[in-house]
Specification:
The complex is a heterodimer of chains A (about 300) and B (about 290). Chain A is mostly helical and about 300 residues long. Chain A has a domain of about 180 residues: Orthogonal Bundle (MetI-like fold). Chain B is globular, with a radius of gyration of 24 Å. Classes of the chains: A mainly alpha (about 300), B mainly alpha (about 290).
């Protein structure tokens, strides 16, 4: 992935052998059949009414009109915004702070890093169950609150519409921070340490060195982290499904869980596809951001 | 848990003496990091302890109490009637072929795109990558229909197929970046000696790609093993569900048997944790692929 591009001058004159076309065609066809063809179908289905039996009935923009007046959809949309900001903000702040703290090698750093990104290897479903256990009425969180004299704060975290979304959010952040930390650690590696040392000699404080020397050098990583986090938060499904299934009373519903319910529980396939198209439209701008970044990397 | 250096680059700078002002703050650093690390691992330790407690102990004294029993009944129940044992086997049957096929097909595409002048190769590469970035929601309903029309709905073949198809774009992109960096002289020399494109792929390119294949393999294993949404999209029969989906079913069936739920989560978490520790270095470099340089 580095700039040591292979000089392809000698190959320029040769034609592409047939077997190489086959090498490309097989994977391309698999992806076409499993990804692009289904994606196109979703767009078509979003303009229809269909319960999976018989033919889909085209109904124009009705699904989207209904979405606009669907309170559950609006709630899920708002929750998704809260989710993107909370999940993104907390995991970026936490990951960045930890990366800066654990950047320089010293005793114990390897152990701290391992501990912090270990949760990342668990599935979101496992993470959800790990935290369900903590949140249940006599679980660790309530017990801890009771032990430090804050009984009044004890709650049924996941059964309470006011707290369910945030309870799930904390669990998701716990898993994501390690990933963001790894990305920032890599970003910090590619910064120029002599700049930092030089500004330290000039008397810059730790905060000034971070803000004016390190931070500007992290711009590339920031773009990636931003795009990845937003794409991830629009995709978020497993952890909510494992912890609350969007409840109670849709209080932790996200677009993805609402789409799944409409599609696979109620078999409103057209309506569910319309929700999927909305998710896609929201993700699109960030997908493009990521691709532009990838193109730059390719060109480098 | 080892304190192995996680990023190889570290060792390069480890030799330098730390600046004095940093050394002074050493105690403060650990005073913050030790509690934070403990807080971070606490949920895992708690679930692990819970999994080894007996039902009676938990029923009498609550989940958060100090353990007063040691029992394997949670694991026995989860692996047996809770079907986690069967689900684990299902997951292996899905993960192994899906990872191998993904890497094989991706290496073909990456080879073709990186070593030959295929018209529009950059556009093809980025389109393939874009497919992996799509939100899965836009694919779920049509994918289940495609599987039905192929006659493989509700089979593990369908699950392998969608994992391969959806992951390909990303794996191709990463391998392409690596293959492009292999000097042209190597393959040119082989070509002059009469090696065809297939031989060059098998004898030169693939052996050189071993590090990135290992990294991608570690990453793909955890992704596919941890998947939930594709499993519940293309499978209907409960007996065919892989680990994550079976875990959620089990949770519904053992609402207040916290030791069984905890044991089942541990069972679902252990394989990826093993992959993580065995391939720690690969895993981290895998995560960085395609995201930063």
């Amino acid at each position: 992935m580095t700039a040591v591009a292979a000089p392809d001058r000698p190959r320029r004159r040769t034609r592409v052998p047939a077997v190489v076309w086959a090498f490309l065609a097989v994977p391309a066809l698999v992806e076409l059949a499993m990804v692009f063809w289904p994606a196109l179908n979703s767009f078509y289905l979003s303009f229809t009414e269909w319960n999976g039996l018989g033919a889909a009935k085209p109904i124009g923009l009705d699904n989207f009109r209904n979405l606009a007046s669907d309170d559950v959809f609006r709630g899920a949309f708002e929750n998704n915004v809260i989710w993107a900001v909370g999940f993104g903000g907390l995991s970026v702040l936490g990951g960045l702070a930890l990366a800066v703290a654990l950047n320089r090698p010293r005793r114990g750093v390897g152990l701290y890093r391992s501990a912090i990104y270990l949760p990342m290897v668990f599935s979101l479903a496992v993470t959800g169950l790990f935290w369900r256990v903590q949140y249940q009425p006599d679980g660790t969180i309530n017990t801890f609150l009771g032990a430090i004299g804050l009984e009044s704060l004890e709650k049924q975290w996941l059964a309470n519409p006011d707290t369910a979304l945030y309870a799930v959010l904390i669990a998701a952040v716990w898993r994501q921070v390690g990933y963001v930390m790894v990305l920032y650690l890599a970003g910090l590696k590619s910064t120029d340490p002599t700049l930092d040392d030089a500004s330290a000699v000039d008397g810059a404080s730790a905060w000034q060195r971070f803000r004016f020397v390190t931070w500007p050098q992290l711009r590339g990583v920031n773009t990636v982290v931003f795009a990845v986090t937003v794409i991830d938060s629009l995709r978020t499904f497993d952890i909510v499904w494992a912890m609350t299934q969007g409840g109670p009373y849709h209080s932790s519903e996200l677009l993805s869980t609402y789409m799944f319910q409409q599609g696979f529980t109620f078999l409103n396939l057209g309506y569910a596809s319309a929700i999927a198209v909305v998710i896609f439209a929201l993700a699109l701008i960030f997908i493009i951001t990521y691709l532009v970044r990838a193109t730059k990397e390719e060109a480098a | 848990m080892t304190s192995a250096t996680l990023t190889p680059v570290d060792s390069a700078r480890a030799g330098e003496p730390a600046p004095l002002n940093r050394r002074k703050r050493g105690w403060g650093f650990h005073a913050v990091m030790v509690p934070l690390t403990l807080l971070w691992v606490a949920p895992m330790v708690f679930v692990l302890v819970l999994a080894f407690r007996s039902f009676d102990d938990i029923a009498a004294r609550g989940t958060a109490a100090w353990p007063d029993s040691f029992s394997l009944e949670g694991f026995q129940e989860a692996l047996g009637r809770g079907t986690m044992g069967r689900a684990l086997w299902t997951s292996i049957q899905v993960t192994v072929p899906a990872v191998l096929l993904s890497l094989l097909l991706a290496s073909w595409a990456a080879y073709a795109l990186s070593r030959f002048r295929i018209p529009g190769r950059r556009a093809i590469l980025l389109t393939m990558l874009a497919g992996n970035l799509l939100p899965p929601q836009i694919l779920l309903i049509p994918v289940s229909r495609v599987m039905e029309s192929l006659g493989i709905y509700d089979t593990l073949v369908a699950l392998v197929a969608i994992h391969v198809g959806f992951g390909l774009g990303f794996y191709t992109f990463v391998l392409h970046g690596f293959m492009r960096s292999i000097p042209g002289e190597l393959t040119e020399a082989a070509r002059i000696d009469g090696a065809g494109p297939v031989q060059i792929y098998a004898r030169i390119i693939m052996p050189l790609c071993r590090p990135s294949l290992a990294a991608l393999g570690a990453l793909a294993t955890t992704w596919i093993f941890n998947d939930l949404i594709w499993a519940i999209t293309v499978l209907r029969t409960e007996a065919k569900l892989p680990v994550t989906a079976a875990l959620l079913n089990l949770q519904g069936g053992y609402v207040s048997n916290w030791n069984v739920v905890a044991a089942a989560s541990v069972i679902a978490a252990v394989p990826t944790a093993i992959v993580f520790f065995a391939f720690q270095r690969h895993f981290v470099s895998g995560l960085l692929m395609g995201s930063t340089k």
